[in-house]
């Protein structure tokens, strides 16, 4: 198995190609919220049934951790090289550093060595010894293909169009939704919700339960918050998709459906009384690639109504996410309508309610 050190020496052109997918948005910074964010916190964890790492052995080592139950691969200095969480297909691997930036929309950047990919099966204790995982990991630890983060930024403002062999444009600058022709019928929101990935693509899509849905021309190149997640995890990374909430065993259509589904591992469980619930008291257990769920609108009753992809710390040390939002008309890590951070006292930080690792 190739070492993780070899993987970190991937040619610089690979990194540059990934950076080319980053986008640039235009808006004034919300400095008052940025200044209110506290310093980054440190996660302290204790191994389950494992002793100290022998830092002089030069060997890698598998280790079990809890809260949540997971397996990590440690390097020769005890550093975590990869994380695999029970019940989840999302794996976080250490790789070449990349920078994701939107300088016209926010002064901060996300510089990360975390690469997030989907495994073919959900993780369980001892899976590192199984043939399916060994085959997958050999490829995943060396591939130059886009991970979930690189894919997500292929839909932000200014992202170049990408087409498949048949000429279908499957990536490029995405809108949130069409302009609302009658604000009074949609609670005054200027852009309509309910734009799924197949609307963006402009093609009919048949789901696993046999349901075929047709795209609406007015929603071409548009994906709302959950449509964005379904595009990145589902259509692009091939995570199974349900035709709607509570239909089939795939990723549900809405943020509420995703948050309350049995899929993956609940990292921050929903708690507190409906309809507003409670903000999680400790968010240190999050890792890059987790889905974040928010309660933002009193018109949606007890439903959670926004979903985002957690990226990890930004260059100022704060916990940052990307999501498709009305304020900037598409996917963003920017500040318009609220800083894209979940620590501190900003808009989204106050309205975070739960998190899941698919």
TrEMBL record:
Annotated signal sequence range: 1-25
One GO molecular function term of this record is:
cysteine-type peptidase activity
Key word DNA damage present: no
Q: Does the keyword Lyase apply?
A: no
| GO BP field | proteolysis
Q: Which organism is it from?
A: Streptomyces hundungensis
Q: Where is this region: Disordered?
A: 34-56
Basic and acidic residues biased stretches: 43-56
Source superkingdom = Bacteria
SUPFAM superfamilies of this UniProt entry?
Answer: Cysteine proteinases
What is the protein name stated in its UniProt record?
NlpC/P60 domain-containing protein
Q: A Pfam family matched by this chain, by name? A: NLPC_P60
Which Gene3D superfamilies does this UniProt record tie to the protein?
endopeptidase domain like (from Nostoc punctiforme)
Question: What keywords would UniProt list here?
Answer: Hydrolase, Protease, Signal, Thiol protease
Please give the family membership noted in the entry: Belongs to the peptidase C40 family.
InterPro entries in UniProt: NLP_P60_dom, Papain-like_cys_pep_sf
The residue ranges of the NlpC/P60 domain are 185-358
